[in-house]
Amino acid sequence: MNYVPHFNHMIAISRTITACILLLFTLTDVPLSALPSDFDGLFALAFAGFAIVTLILSFKSWFFDFTLSQVFIVVDAAAFLLLLAPQIDTVPDSSVPALCLMAHIQFSSVMRWRLGIGILVGALLVALWIAHIVVFKLPLASTAPGQALRWSLFAMIESLIVLWASAQMHRMSLPRFAGYDPAPELPLTASAVGYAMRTAGAADAFLCWIDRKDFGCYMCSAGSLDDELPPTKLSFVAAGGFKKLAPMVFDIPRVRAVISGNGQSSARAVSAVPGYALLRELGVETGVCIPADNDQEQSWLILTRIPMLGWGHLRLARAIRAEVAQGLSWQLASANALDAALSRLRRTVASDLHDSVAHSLAGAKFLLVALRSKVSANYEVVKEIDSIKDALDAEHLQVRKLIEQLRQTGSDSRARNLIEDLEGIRPTLAARWQIELELVDSDFRIPVPVWLSLEVQQIVREAVSNAVRHGKASKIAIKCQRRSGSIKIQVTDNGAGFADPHKPALPRSINDRLSQLDGSLEVASRPGSTTLRLSVPAGAVD
């Protein structure tokens, strides 16, 4: 279980349990039908009332609980000193409540600050406890030396156990974060939104970032990520607030915030916090801000609608930030290693194509030229040879373009515009198959990795080839758009169509390629027209 977000509640509950123990030990020395009237009884009642007030405050107002938390611990320490005072020490069993209060103060110190301060506080309390025994107990002969030694050792052992247990609770064990590649228009941190929400128990979240291309400030909500909606550009005022945002827990309706910085936490009015304008524009009321920067981008996670929000969520936010940063670092390293391996493979394929296929095509063209000179008298044969030579020229040019694209992969794996690449192969396909081929109603730009551009080009080539060879098509239209995180490609021809329009056969080669991309293929056919609808999911694009 992750205790860190509920440190404030745990401290208040620990204080209340200690107060109940103190009150129980005090009440057992008087008749149960009457309230205690001596000083120790009044003290126990006062401390119990104080504990109940702090318990209620911890659940009602985490802001005041944080601002007064140090005062509360000082009151706890004062109560411990009063328990050691001679007039209260007349209670026979006051040692047990005093040791319980000592354990509570040590626990609170670790939870509120850190283990180092808890150790210092624990050492001071144990020293006061031993001094109390030496100064007040032994001179009055109320405690034997052996008993005094046992009480001293018990206090030291208790302190060690409490500090160890507190440190274990203070240590957070978060689930491992494993990211994924989001859509191209989103930052890498978008993959951490769901993880951060689950870890913090948030019902909603916002991701804000600076786009490095146009330097605009954008945001998307958890819902828009699930629905694969495009990001929203924020106003200039909100962008200014983004640049000065700080890690914090905030409550806008009550105008309060606890801010973390330089290892310290401080309380202030949320309207004075840099980033207030951004929070107002997002429309959030309460939540926690988590920086999610990495080597490639600057972004913020804003988690909201968190049940039982408290200042302990600041420490949870630091742990989430560290886990996300480590996960993104591994993700980037893995992606870079994979890109490097793929680049080497593609360069090898490019070299093989250059040394074998390209040379073979060039040699075939040379042989055709030589053959043409020998049969120049036969016009029909010369015409056929010229047609074959033109086809070889087109294929040779296409192979050289393919080699060039493969060699570009290592330097610019995400810079290809699929629309431009399809437009580039359109004239070659039209000339090769002697058809009218158009790119219609398509997006202006669809950025994809080089490998995906090559895959789509091969699919389109196969679709055109099938339409001409099997359907006897003379006119083909290609439409390419990105919709809802997927690339939608439609190839429509004026061919004969399938023999059975109700059960058209799926082209095997195209279907196999799309299956490897987790894509889909639909075929609609009627006499005089066939349409292939292809879809490549966003995961393959990214």
Terminal Cα separation, in Å?
A: 35 Å
Helix content: 55-70%
Please state how the strands of the largest beta sheet are arranged side by side.
3-2-1-8-7-4-5-6
Please state the structural category. alpha+beta
- Give the integer mean of the pLDDT values: 81
Number of helices: 17
Main pleated-sheet profile: 8 strands, antiparallel
| Beta strand count | 15
Overall, the morphology is elongated
- Strand residue percentage: 5-15%
Oligomer: single chain
Low-confidence stretches: 30-36, 87-92
Radius of gyration: 37 Å
Q: What key phrases describe this protein's structure?
A:
elongated; Beta-Lactamase; 5-stranded mixed β-sheet; 15 strands; 542 residues; 15% strand; 8-stranded antiparallel β-sheet; 17 helices; alpha+beta
Task: Summarize the structure in words.
There is one protein chain. The chain has 542 residues and is α+β, with helices and mostly antiparallel strands. Among the domains are: 4-170, no CATH class; 188-333, GAF domain (Beta-Lactamase). Helices cover 56% and strands 15% of the residues. The chain has 17 helices and 15 strands. The strands form three sheets. The chain has an eight-stranded antiparallel sheet, sandwiched between helices. A five-stranded mixed sheet has the order 10-12-13-15-14. It has a two-stranded antiparallel ribbon with strand order 9-11. Helix 1 runs antiparallel to helix 2, helix 5 (95-112) packs antiparallel against helix 6 and helix 15 (450-469) runs antiparallel to helix 16 (508-516). The chain is elongated. Residues 30-36 and 87-92 have low confidence and may be disordered.
